Structure formats: C-alpha cells, structure tokens
C-alpha cells in the first residue's frame, strides 16, 4: 500500500510570533521531521495557505473584528486576522521544517472570495486544489496527516481524505489546535474519528 505524508500549513504566520499563531505550533516540527526520517513515504506533500491581500476571510476586509462570523458565499466564515498573504514572510514555511523529502506543494485559499481550510478543496466545495488528482496519479492509498491547525485545516483535510477514499491517519503528536473555544481540539478529534480517521498517539 503506497502512502503519503500530508503536512498541513506549517507556515510562519501559524507559528509563534505569527499573525495567527497556534499555541505550541513549533513543538510539532521535530516530530514531523522525525516521521520523514524514520518512514519511507512514497510522497510527502505540503499544503500552504496562500491568500491574496484583501481576502474575504480577513476581518479587515469586511470591517469586522477578529472572532466575529459572517456568511460568505452561503457558508459561515470565521473572521481571521490577515495571514499567509502571498509572497510574505508569514506565508513561508517555517525554517525548521525539513523539506528535503517534499515531493509536492499544494497552495490553497487563493480565491479571494472563499476560504479553503482543506488541502483538497475550498470551503464551498466548488474548486479542487489538485491534491486528490496528485495522490491518485501516484497510486497513494494511505495518507498520514500532521500540521496546523488541528481544529480547522487539519480536520477538514483529514475528513476530505476519507471522503476521497484514502485510509487516513492523524498523528496526534504532530498537530496543535487554535482552540478558539476550549473544547475545539477535543471536538475535532471526535469528529474525525466519527468520519473514519484513525488517530495515532
């Protein structure tokens, strides 16, 4: 069974000091590097939040406060601080992440009108990123997922992996949550298990 490691959004803006820092984010990087060192993955894929300036998911683009919610193109949208803007330092991958074995990069959130948490598709399920095509082209059947953040982009990437027919595993030690609400991480784990994701310690 061919397997891929999908590393979700390990970018400067999601790490300590970034515009949308996830608590403990940089703690997962040595774990992810070790996974790549100790396992023979057929493919190693990075997803990268890659927003145009003025993206509609930004609070500043809507005259709203961070943490508010609006309906954006028919779906609820949490208002985020400006983050991972194309070509900025914040959008770059963290310098400590070993990219020697990376075989593919998927950029998401490029459409200014709609956010894209999942590495597979946007939040409206209108546009695919090409990740599924890439994995199927390379006969990948099993995906292991790590990265940021557990309760958003990791969760939706894992759920979409199951929906697209992959045996899907989440490395709990390779992810951290935003935890806008205290139970978000716990709830995300339960949701993923219910959808068929295997959670590895």
Layout of strands and helices, then pairs:
Blueprint: E1 2-8, H1 29-38, E2 43-49, E3 69-72, E4 75-78, E5 104-108, H2 131-137, E6 140-148, H3 150-163, E7 167-176, H4 184-195, E8 198-200
Helix pairs in contact: 3-4
Pfam family, one: Isochorismatase
EC number: 3.5.1.19
Domain Isochorismatase-like: 4-199
What does this protein structure show overall?
Pfam families: Isochorismatase. The chain has 201 residues and is an alpha/beta fold. Helices cover 21% and strands 24% of the residues. α3 packs parallel to α4 (184-195). The longest helix has 14 residues, at 150-163.
The overall strand count is 8
H-E string: EHEEEEHEHEHE
Radius of gyration: 16 Å
Distance between the termini: 21 Å
Output mean pLDDT: 97
Outline type: globular
Oligomerization state of this entry? single chain
Number of helices: 4
Helix content: 10-25%
Relative strand content: 15-25%
**Largest sheet: spatial strand order:** 5-2-1-6-7-8
What does the largest sheet look like? 6 strands, parallel
| pLDDT < 50 runs, ≥5 residues | none
Alpha-beta classification: alpha/beta
Task: List the main descriptive attributes of the protein structure presented here.
single chain; 201 residues; alpha/beta; six-stranded parallel beta sheet; two-stranded antiparallel sheet
